[in-house]
């Protein structure tokens, strides 16, 4: 139960990345309670619960690609669109802490993915290896994309690539081979990089920490990739995918991905609309300029003069 | 010479600061105020990349050293600074020279040139 609770706790935290610096705190708490109950819980049940319709359909989601990443990524995008852009987008305030955070995520993700085997066995070991491989491969492909496009490889890029790779392997960690995870990571890094660098700029939405770019897009790719690369030889409780002679799984995965996307988007939209109708969800212009750390929490988080 | 008080501001790159501090100490200046500043001039900025965001950074970090002198000749201060900091490239920095109305040492109430002097027993 505690393991499942951990998933429920970590998922809405991802949405905070999209709404950063402009959402009122009490409204955020209300949103969290509503979202976890009305979006996370149903999707978790569909995918993992006894009698869940996606589980019965045969959809594979080892550690929560649909449940955690697609749901939060898409919801983050909807929230970012509904809240609007920040008035002033600054640069990252502390890259060393960001890198440390990525390292902690990588370490913790072993528990997230390998632990989803719910036992210490061959499947868990496989998930451990695929998780590590995908993260590393994605960091490399992201860096290659960055270098090709801007001639510079950034630490933030490597950190983001790592996260994208970890997300991409989440639905398939215990179902695909390590070699497949290499491909999943390489493609995942490139796809997420492209979405954040090109699509986001074109569409002009302000997803502050790229929850949609890394988690939404990464989760969607991971879900589809699981449909391609899953192999019953790795995990007899799973199924085989496209390259192992079972194209049906790919179709099922696409259904799972689409239903997660649509459901998350619609319900998140309704939740935010209702909260906003009761009281404006976005912080005022002056408050945003001063900084919500001071106006919402009465604390100076960053200190000093920043230009 | 009368008790003429002069302020000298030196704005230059951080890398040269320690060398400058030592050189100023060698000519008899041990008190100064140093701040980190951002500025622009002939040096153009650079681009920074943060995921999907490309930023043009036009302000360059520099260090500003503020000195007030009376006994030590202003020309000597300026020449010392120029000798340490000069490379011939842009980005060496600038020196500004101002008049000062008064200097007060808060602990003793000394004013003028006496406020800038440190007696031997304080060392």
UniProtKB/TrEMBL annotation, chain B:
SMART domains found in the cross-reference section = P-II (SM00938)
Going by the entry's taxonomy, the superkingdom of the source organism is recorded as Bacteria
Among Pfam families, the record links this protein to: P-II
Q: Which family does it belong to?
A: Belongs to the P(II) protein family.
Q: What is this protein called?
A: P-II family nitrogen regulator
Source organism per UniProt: Clostridium aromativorans
């Amino acid at each position: 139960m505690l393991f499942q609770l951990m998933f429920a706790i970590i998922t809405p935290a991802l949405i905070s990345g999209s709404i950063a610096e402009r959402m009122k705190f009490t409204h955020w708490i209300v949103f969290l309670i509503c979202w976890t109950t009305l979006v996370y819980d149903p999707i978790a049940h569909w995918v993992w619960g006894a009698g869940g319709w996606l589980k019965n359909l045969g959809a594979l989601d080892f550690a929560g690609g649909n449940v955690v990443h697609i749901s939060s990524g898409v919801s983050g995008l909807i929230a970012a669109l509904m809240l609007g852009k920040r008035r002033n987008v600054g640069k990252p305030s502390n890259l060393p802490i960001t890198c440390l955070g990525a390292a902690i995520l990588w370490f913790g993700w072993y528990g997230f993915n390998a632990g989803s085997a719910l036992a210490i066995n061959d499947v868990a070991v496989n998930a451990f290896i695929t998780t590590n491989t995908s993260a590393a491969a994605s960091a490399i492909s992201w860096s290659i994309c960055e270098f090709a496009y801007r001639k510079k490889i950034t630490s933030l890029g490597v950190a983001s690539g790592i996260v994208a790779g970890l997300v991409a392997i989440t639905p398939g960690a215990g179902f695909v081979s390590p070699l497949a995870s290499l491909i999943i990571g390489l493609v995942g890094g490139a796809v997420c990089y492209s979405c954040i660098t090109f699509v986001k700029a074109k569409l002009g939405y302000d997803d502050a920490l790229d929850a949609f770019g890394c988690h939404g897009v990464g989760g969607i790719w991971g879900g589809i990739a699981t449909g391609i690369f899953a192999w019953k030889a790795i995990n007899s409780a799973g199924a085989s995918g496209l390259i192992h002679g079972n194209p049906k799984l790919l179709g099922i995965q696409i259904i799972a991905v689409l239903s997660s996307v649509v459901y998350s988007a619609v319900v998140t939209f309704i939740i935010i609309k209702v909260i906003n109708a009761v009281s404006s969800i976005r912080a005022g212009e002056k408050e945003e300029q001063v900084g919500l750390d001071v106006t919402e929490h009465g604390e100076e988080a960053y200190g000093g003069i920043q230009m | 010479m009368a008790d003429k008080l002069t302020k000298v501001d030196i704005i230059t790159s951080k890398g040269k600061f320690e060398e400058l501090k030592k050189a100023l100490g060698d000519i008899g200046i041990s008190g100064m105020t140093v701040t980190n500043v951002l500025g622009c001039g002939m040096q153009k900025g650079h681009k920074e990349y943060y995921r999907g965001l490309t930023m043009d950074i036009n302000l360059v970090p520099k260090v500003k050293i503020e000195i007030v002198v009376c006994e030590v000749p202003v020309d000597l201060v300026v020449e010392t600074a120029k000798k340490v900091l000069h490379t011939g490239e842009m980005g060496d920095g600038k020196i500004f020279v101002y008049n000062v109305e008064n200097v007060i040492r808060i602990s003793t109430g000394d004013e003028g040139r006496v406020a800038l002097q440190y007696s031997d027993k304080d060392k």
